[in-house]
């Protein structure tokens, strides 16, 4: 209850700060607080035309890379459970595993968070191979965890996103916003791109494509100020169509949303998910 009250009060304070008579004074104050890493939660700041511009405009108080030792501990509470936003992916994986899908590439899968969390709700085929790619610090932590906890030996890790070549399913949950490249840019050079792509927990704007900064936190302590990519919904689907993929399913959730203070036109009121198929 206290946390909810604090969030409500913070929302009221930001609303007041964005009133026309207060905005000019409050905006530089917010920038100062963002730079000093004193804002609670995963705060957002600024709107930029590219990842490079966002990185150049980030405060020097924190790194601009997710490749930090603490990143492997961000989702430790999800290793034994799933979230509401995971259920569409569980549904589609159950259907794909019931068919002939046996090789899954988990892009940005942290330490195998989905692999460990889903196993309590989803029967894994005996010959399943679940391969995770993430930044080097997280891959190292994931390999150590898998050695201790993955008795079935189905989980592996790789340093190269190109190892998605030849996989049946590409899973991208909550990761596309952090990449320096778009997913179609990864898929197009592959000789045997995955037939199925599951995208989940992705911020898409109705009209605009832009990059902001997200202050990534662990236990209320800042880890990094990461460029955070938001793509226009229509452009996102068109990029996949150009790479040979069609939309099989599309869902959205208001469980996740994004508000950039002083940039109301760039707010995202829901996050999206898709099942794409290459015929």
TrEMBL record:
<keyword id="KW-0489">Methyltransferase</keyword>
<dbReference type="GO" id="GO:0008168">
    <property type="term" value="F:methyltransferase activity"/>
</dbReference>
<protein>
    <submittedName>
        <fullName>TIGR04325 family methyltransferase</fullName>
    </submittedName>
</protein>
<keyword id="KW-0808">Transferase</keyword>
<dbReference type="GO" id="GO:0032259">
    <property type="term" value="P:methylation"/>
</dbReference>
<dbReference type="InterPro" id="IPR027612">
    <property type="entry name" value="Put_MTase_LIC12133"/>
</dbReference>
<dbReference type="InterPro" id="IPR029063">
    <property type="entry name" value="SAM-dependent_MTases_sf"/>
</dbReference>
């Amino acid at each position: 209850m206290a946390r909810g009250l604090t969030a409500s009060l913070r929302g009221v304070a930001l609303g007041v700060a964005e009133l026309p008579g207060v905005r000019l004074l409050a905006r530089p104050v917010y920038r100062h607080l963002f730079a000093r890493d004193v804002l609670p939660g995963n705060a957002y700041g600024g709107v930029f035309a590219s990842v490079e511009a966002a990185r150049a405009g980030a405060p020097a108080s924190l790194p601009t890379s997710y490749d930090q030792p603490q990143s492997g501990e961000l989702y430790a509470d999800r290793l034994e459970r799933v979230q509401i936003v995971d259920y569409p992916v569980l549904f589609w994986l159950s259907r794909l595993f019931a068919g002939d899908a046996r090789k899954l590439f988990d892009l940005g899968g942290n330490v195998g968070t989905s692999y460990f969390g889903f196993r309590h709700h989803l029967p894994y085929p005996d010959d399943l191979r679940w391969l995770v790619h993430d930044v080097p610090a997280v891959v190292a932590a994931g390999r150590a965890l898998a050695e201790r906890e993955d008795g079935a030996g189905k989980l592996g890790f790789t340093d190269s996103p190109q190892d998605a070549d030849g996989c049946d399913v590409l899973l991208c949950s909550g990761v596309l916003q952090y990449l320096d490249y778009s997913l179609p840019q990864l898929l197009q050079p592959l000789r045997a791109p995955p037939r199925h792509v599951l995208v989940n927990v992705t911020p898409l704007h109705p009209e605009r494509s832009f990059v902001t900064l997200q202050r990534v936190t662990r236990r209320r302590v800042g880890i990094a100020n990461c460029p955070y990519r938001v793509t226009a919904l229509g452009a996102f689907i068109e990029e996949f169509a150009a790479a040979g993929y069609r939309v099989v399913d599309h869902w959205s959730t208001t469980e996740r949303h994004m508000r950039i203070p002083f940039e109301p036109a760039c707010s995202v009121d829901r996050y999206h998910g898709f099942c794409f198929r290459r015929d």
